[in-house]
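Two proteins, back to back. First:
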Amino acid sequence: MFNFLLCSNHLTCYIYHPMDLQKFRRTAARNKGKLAAFLKKLDELVPEDMPLLVKAADREVWETVNCMKCANCCKTMTPTYTKADIGRIAAHLRMTARQFTDKWLKKEEDTGDWVNQSQPCQFLIDNKCSIYEVRPKDCAEFPHHNKKPFDAYNDTFSNNVDKCPATYLLVSKLKAKVEAEYEW
Protein backbone atom coordinates (compact mmCIF):
# COMPACT_ATOMS: atom_id res chain seq x y z
CA MET A 1 0.00 0.00 0.00
CA PHE A 2 1.04 3.59 -0.39
CA ASN A 3 0.95 6.16 2.34
CA PHE A 4 -0.81 9.06 0.68
CA LEU A 5 -0.23 12.69 1.49
CA LEU A 6 -1.34 15.95 0.02
CA CYS A 7 1.42 17.65 -1.93
CA SER A 8 1.74 21.40 -1.95
CA ASN A 9 0.10 21.47 -5.40
CA HIS A 10 -3.07 19.87 -4.02
CA LEU A 11 -2.41 16.56 -5.76
CA THR A 12 -2.33 13.36 -3.84
CA CYS A 13 1.23 12.07 -3.77
CA TYR A 14 2.40 8.98 -2.02
CA ILE A 15 5.33 7.50 -0.25
CA TYR A 16 6.07 4.01 -1.46
CA HIS A 17 5.49 1.01 0.73
CA PRO A 18 4.41 -2.37 -0.60
CA MET A 19 2.48 -1.66 -3.79
CA ASP A 20 -1.27 -1.11 -3.80
CA LEU A 21 -1.91 -0.72 -7.52
CA GLN A 22 -5.66 -0.26 -7.14
CA LYS A 23 -5.14 2.74 -4.88
CA PHE A 24 -2.48 4.11 -7.23
CA ARG A 25 -4.78 3.72 -10.26
CA ARG A 26 -7.63 5.56 -8.50
CA THR A 27 -5.36 8.37 -7.35
CA ALA A 28 -3.64 8.69 -10.72
CA ALA A 29 -6.95 8.70 -12.60
CA ARG A 30 -8.26 11.43 -10.31
CA ASN A 31 -5.17 13.61 -10.88
CA LYS A 32 -4.32 12.77 -14.50
CA GLY A 33 -6.09 15.86 -15.88
CA LYS A 34 -4.17 18.25 -13.61
CA LEU A 35 -0.86 16.60 -14.43
CA ALA A 36 -1.61 16.54 -18.17
CA ALA A 37 -2.51 20.25 -18.03
CA PHE A 38 0.79 20.97 -16.26
CA LEU A 39 2.73 19.03 -18.91
CA LYS A 40 0.86 20.85 -21.70
CA LYS A 41 1.75 24.20 -20.15
CA LEU A 42 5.31 22.95 -19.76
CA ASP A 43 5.42 22.65 -23.56
CA GLU A 44 5.29 26.46 -23.66
CA LEU A 45 7.02 27.57 -20.46
CA VAL A 46 10.13 25.59 -19.59
CA PRO A 47 12.23 26.69 -16.61
CA GLU A 48 15.87 27.27 -17.58
CA ASP A 49 17.07 24.79 -14.98
CA MET A 50 14.58 22.08 -15.98
CA PRO A 51 17.27 19.40 -16.47
CA LEU A 52 18.41 19.94 -12.86
CA LEU A 53 14.83 19.87 -11.56
CA VAL A 54 14.14 16.61 -13.42
CA LYS A 55 17.37 15.02 -12.20
CA ALA A 56 16.68 15.89 -8.55
CA ALA A 57 13.02 14.81 -8.67
CA ASP A 58 13.88 11.59 -10.50
CA ARG A 59 16.50 10.71 -7.89
CA GLU A 60 13.82 11.12 -5.17
CA VAL A 61 11.36 8.99 -7.15
CA TRP A 62 13.70 6.02 -7.36
CA GLU A 63 14.28 6.17 -3.60
CA THR A 64 10.60 5.37 -3.12
CA VAL A 65 9.44 3.32 -6.13
CA ASN A 66 10.45 -0.28 -6.76
CA CYS A 67 9.50 -1.51 -10.23
CA MET A 68 9.66 -5.15 -9.20
CA LYS A 69 6.95 -4.57 -6.61
CA CYS A 70 4.80 -2.91 -9.27
CA ALA A 71 5.23 -4.08 -12.87
CA ASN A 72 2.07 -2.14 -13.77
CA CYS A 73 3.61 -1.18 -17.11
CA CYS A 74 3.97 -4.86 -18.02
CA LYS A 75 0.45 -5.58 -16.80
CA THR A 76 -1.35 -2.77 -18.62
CA MET A 77 0.80 -1.61 -21.54
CA THR A 78 2.67 -3.11 -24.45
CA PRO A 79 6.06 -2.15 -25.77
CA THR A 80 6.67 -1.49 -29.43
CA TYR A 81 8.98 -4.19 -30.80
CA THR A 82 11.55 -3.13 -33.37
CA LYS A 83 12.86 -5.52 -36.02
CA ALA A 84 16.08 -5.76 -33.98
CA ASP A 85 14.08 -6.56 -30.82
CA ILE A 86 12.17 -9.31 -32.59
CA GLY A 87 15.33 -10.89 -33.99
CA ARG A 88 17.19 -10.69 -30.67
CA ILE A 89 14.34 -12.08 -28.56
CA ALA A 90 13.47 -14.79 -31.08
CA ALA A 91 17.10 -15.96 -31.16
CA HIS A 92 17.17 -15.97 -27.35
CA LEU A 93 14.05 -18.15 -27.34
CA ARG A 94 15.45 -20.34 -30.14
CA MET A 95 12.68 -19.39 -32.53
CA THR A 96 12.55 -17.73 -35.89
CA ALA A 97 11.38 -14.13 -36.03
CA ARG A 98 8.24 -15.35 -37.82
CA GLN A 99 7.49 -17.93 -35.14
CA PHE A 100 7.95 -15.27 -32.47
CA THR A 101 5.65 -12.72 -34.12
CA ASP A 102 3.03 -15.37 -34.94
CA LYS A 103 2.98 -16.62 -31.37
CA TRP A 104 3.00 -13.37 -29.37
CA LEU A 105 2.72 -10.22 -31.44
CA LYS A 106 0.28 -8.34 -33.63
CA LYS A 107 0.83 -5.50 -36.05
CA GLU A 108 -1.14 -2.35 -35.22
CA GLU A 109 -3.19 -1.26 -38.20
CA ASP A 110 -2.82 2.49 -37.69
CA THR A 111 0.95 2.58 -37.01
CA GLY A 112 2.30 -0.69 -38.40
CA ASP A 113 4.10 -1.25 -35.08
CA TRP A 114 4.57 -4.72 -33.63
CA VAL A 115 3.02 -4.97 -30.13
CA ASN A 116 1.93 -7.71 -27.72
CA GLN A 117 -1.29 -9.50 -28.60
CA SER A 118 -2.50 -9.18 -25.02
CA GLN A 119 -1.74 -7.87 -21.57
CA PRO A 120 -0.24 -8.62 -19.19
CA CYS A 121 2.97 -9.20 -21.10
CA GLN A 122 3.58 -12.85 -21.81
CA PHE A 123 7.12 -12.52 -20.47
CA LEU A 124 6.06 -11.18 -17.04
CA ILE A 125 6.46 -13.90 -14.42
CA ASP A 126 6.11 -13.06 -10.72
CA ASN A 127 6.51 -9.33 -11.49
CA LYS A 128 9.81 -10.02 -13.25
CA CYS A 129 10.70 -9.97 -16.92
CA SER A 130 11.68 -13.46 -18.03
CA ILE A 131 13.60 -12.02 -21.00
CA TYR A 132 15.10 -9.06 -19.14
CA GLU A 133 18.56 -9.37 -20.68
CA VAL A 134 17.10 -9.20 -24.22
CA ARG A 135 13.93 -7.19 -23.54
CA PRO A 136 12.65 -4.70 -26.15
CA LYS A 137 14.39 -1.33 -26.33
CA ASP A 138 11.07 0.31 -25.44
CA CYS A 139 11.05 -1.62 -22.14
CA ALA A 140 14.72 -0.92 -21.43
CA GLU A 141 14.11 2.83 -21.78
CA PHE A 142 10.84 2.90 -19.82
CA PRO A 143 9.69 5.11 -18.09
CA HIS A 144 11.72 7.47 -20.30
CA HIS A 145 12.58 9.92 -17.51
CA ASN A 146 16.11 10.37 -18.85
CA LYS A 147 15.01 11.53 -22.31
CA LYS A 148 16.37 14.92 -23.28
CA PRO A 149 15.06 17.47 -23.46
CA PHE A 150 12.51 16.29 -20.91
CA ASP A 151 9.74 18.58 -22.18
CA ALA A 152 9.98 17.05 -25.68
CA TYR A 153 8.40 13.90 -24.16
CA ASN A 154 5.49 15.54 -22.34
CA ASP A 155 2.96 13.56 -24.41
CA THR A 156 4.68 10.33 -23.35
CA PHE A 157 4.61 11.34 -19.69
CA SER A 158 0.99 12.44 -19.97
CA ASN A 159 0.07 9.02 -21.40
CA ASN A 160 2.04 7.16 -18.72
CA VAL A 161 1.16 9.18 -15.61
CA ASP A 162 -1.75 6.87 -14.75
CA LYS A 163 0.14 3.68 -15.59
CA CYS A 164 3.53 4.19 -13.95
CA PRO A 165 3.82 5.20 -10.29
CA ALA A 166 7.33 6.52 -10.96
CA THR A 167 6.08 8.82 -13.73
CA TYR A 168 3.11 9.92 -11.63
CA LEU A 169 5.41 10.80 -8.76
CA LEU A 170 7.98 12.53 -10.99
CA VAL A 171 5.41 14.75 -12.70
CA SER A 172 3.69 15.48 -9.36
CA LYS A 173 7.00 16.55 -7.82
CA LEU A 174 7.89 18.70 -10.82
CA LYS A 175 4.45 20.32 -10.79
CA ALA A 176 4.72 21.15 -7.09
CA LYS A 177 8.25 22.56 -7.46
CA VAL A 178 7.61 24.61 -10.61
CA GLU A 179 4.30 26.06 -9.44
CA ALA A 180 5.74 26.96 -6.01
CA GLU A 181 9.07 28.40 -7.05
CA TYR A 182 8.71 29.79 -10.58
CA GLU A 183 6.68 32.47 -12.23
CA TRP A 184 4.08 30.33 -13.84
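And the second protein:
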Amino acid sequence: MPRQGDLDGRGNLSRKALVEFTAWFLKVCQDQVTFMAKLFALETLVERLRLYAERRGWRPEAWLLLERVLQQGEVPRGDASRITSLKERSARELLSLLVDDGILGSDTPKGPVSLRFPMQAIELLFPSLFPET
Protein backbone atom coordinates (compact mmCIF):
# COMPACT_ATOMS: atom_id res chain seq x y z
CA MET A 1 0.00 0.00 0.00
CA PRO A 2 1.44 3.41 -0.84
CA ARG A 3 2.17 5.93 1.87
CA GLN A 4 -0.74 8.16 2.86
CA GLY A 5 1.47 11.23 3.27
CA ASP A 6 4.83 12.20 4.72
CA LEU A 7 3.77 11.51 8.32
CA ASP A 8 1.93 8.27 7.61
CA GLY A 9 3.25 4.70 7.57
CA ARG A 10 2.50 2.00 5.02
CA GLY A 11 -0.07 -0.80 5.09
CA ASN A 12 -0.65 -2.06 8.63
CA LEU A 13 1.32 0.86 10.04
CA SER A 14 -0.88 3.50 8.43
CA ARG A 15 -2.24 5.99 10.94
CA LYS A 16 -5.25 6.61 8.73
CA ALA A 17 -6.00 2.87 8.67
CA LEU A 18 -5.65 2.72 12.48
CA VAL A 19 -8.11 5.59 12.94
CA GLU A 20 -10.60 3.99 10.53
CA PHE A 21 -10.29 0.61 12.23
CA THR A 22 -10.70 2.13 15.69
CA ALA A 23 -13.82 4.04 14.63
CA TRP A 24 -15.30 0.90 13.06
CA PHE A 25 -14.46 -1.20 16.13
CA LEU A 26 -16.07 1.28 18.54
CA LYS A 27 -19.24 1.41 16.41
CA VAL A 28 -19.46 -2.38 16.51
CA CYS A 29 -18.94 -2.37 20.30
CA GLN A 30 -21.63 0.25 20.79
CA ASP A 31 -24.01 -1.69 18.56
CA GLN A 32 -23.43 -4.88 20.56
CA VAL A 33 -23.94 -3.15 23.92
CA THR A 34 -27.20 -1.64 22.67
CA PHE A 35 -28.33 -5.01 21.31
CA MET A 36 -27.58 -6.86 24.55
CA ALA A 37 -29.22 -4.16 26.66
CA LYS A 38 -32.42 -4.58 24.64
CA LEU A 39 -32.16 -8.35 24.81
CA PHE A 40 -31.79 -8.48 28.60
CA ALA A 41 -34.21 -5.56 29.20
CA LEU A 42 -32.64 -4.89 32.59
CA GLU A 43 -34.93 -1.92 33.27
CA THR A 44 -37.87 -4.34 33.60
CA LEU A 45 -36.01 -7.17 35.36
CA VAL A 46 -37.43 -6.02 38.70
CA GLU A 47 -40.99 -6.66 37.52
CA ARG A 48 -40.07 -10.01 36.01
CA LEU A 49 -38.48 -11.05 39.32
CA ARG A 50 -41.70 -10.09 41.10
CA LEU A 51 -43.69 -12.19 38.63
CA TYR A 52 -41.31 -15.13 39.13
CA ALA A 53 -41.80 -14.97 42.91
CA GLU A 54 -45.58 -14.84 42.49
CA ARG A 55 -45.65 -17.78 40.09
CA ARG A 56 -43.55 -19.87 42.47
CA GLY A 57 -46.19 -19.23 45.15
CA TRP A 58 -43.77 -17.68 47.62
CA ARG A 59 -44.87 -15.34 50.37
CA PRO A 60 -44.69 -11.62 49.45
CA GLU A 61 -41.59 -11.05 51.59
CA ALA A 62 -39.58 -13.18 49.15
CA TRP A 63 -39.95 -10.42 46.63
CA LEU A 64 -38.49 -7.87 49.06
CA LEU A 65 -35.42 -10.02 49.51
CA LEU A 66 -34.98 -10.60 45.76
CA GLU A 67 -35.35 -6.90 45.05
CA ARG A 68 -32.71 -5.97 47.64
CA VAL A 69 -30.27 -8.56 46.29
CA LEU A 70 -30.82 -7.21 42.77
CA GLN A 71 -30.12 -3.66 43.96
CA GLN A 72 -27.07 -4.41 46.09
CA GLY A 73 -25.52 -7.35 44.25
CA GLU A 74 -25.27 -9.44 47.40
CA VAL A 75 -26.80 -9.40 50.87
CA PRO A 76 -25.47 -10.91 54.11
CA ARG A 77 -27.65 -13.78 55.26
CA GLY A 78 -28.21 -12.11 58.63
CA ASP A 79 -29.94 -9.16 56.94
CA ALA A 80 -32.82 -11.32 55.65
CA SER A 81 -34.88 -10.74 58.79
CA ARG A 82 -34.42 -6.97 58.67
CA ILE A 83 -35.18 -6.76 54.92
CA THR A 84 -38.32 -8.88 55.07
CA SER A 85 -39.53 -7.75 58.53
CA LEU A 86 -40.00 -11.42 59.39
CA LYS A 87 -38.89 -13.10 62.58
CA GLU A 88 -35.42 -14.63 62.45
CA ARG A 89 -36.56 -18.23 61.97
CA SER A 90 -39.11 -17.35 59.27
CA ALA A 91 -36.56 -15.23 57.43
CA ARG A 92 -34.02 -18.07 57.52
CA GLU A 93 -36.62 -20.52 56.17
CA LEU A 94 -37.51 -18.11 53.38
CA LEU A 95 -33.86 -17.58 52.53
CA SER A 96 -33.31 -21.34 52.50
CA LEU A 97 -36.29 -21.74 50.15
CA LEU A 98 -34.84 -19.19 47.73
CA VAL A 99 -31.40 -20.80 47.84
CA ASP A 100 -32.89 -24.28 47.31
CA ASP A 101 -34.81 -22.92 44.31
CA GLY A 102 -31.57 -21.61 42.85
CA ILE A 103 -32.67 -17.99 42.42
CA LEU A 104 -30.27 -17.04 45.21
CA GLY A 105 -26.92 -18.61 45.85
CA SER A 106 -23.72 -18.25 47.80
CA ASP A 107 -20.11 -19.28 47.38
CA THR A 108 -20.00 -20.57 50.94
CA PRO A 109 -22.70 -22.01 53.23
CA LYS A 110 -22.63 -18.95 55.50
CA GLY A 111 -21.55 -16.30 53.02
CA PRO A 112 -23.65 -13.52 51.51
CA VAL A 113 -26.27 -14.47 48.94
CA SER A 114 -26.42 -13.14 45.39
CA LEU A 115 -28.87 -13.44 42.54
CA ARG A 116 -28.54 -16.49 40.31
CA PHE A 117 -30.50 -17.46 37.25
CA PRO A 118 -31.57 -21.12 37.36
CA MET A 119 -32.76 -22.76 34.15
CA GLN A 120 -36.40 -22.80 35.26
CA ALA A 121 -36.30 -19.00 35.62
CA ILE A 122 -34.48 -18.02 32.43
CA GLU A 123 -37.48 -17.98 30.09
CA LEU A 124 -39.48 -15.74 32.41
CA LEU A 125 -36.63 -13.47 33.49
CA PHE A 126 -35.10 -13.03 30.03
CA PRO A 127 -37.86 -13.70 27.50
CA SER A 128 -35.99 -12.15 24.56
CA LEU A 129 -33.14 -14.63 24.92
CA PHE A 130 -35.47 -17.52 24.16
CA PRO A 131 -38.09 -16.32 21.67
CA GLU A 132 -41.11 -18.55 21.26
CA THR A 133 -40.91 -20.87 18.28
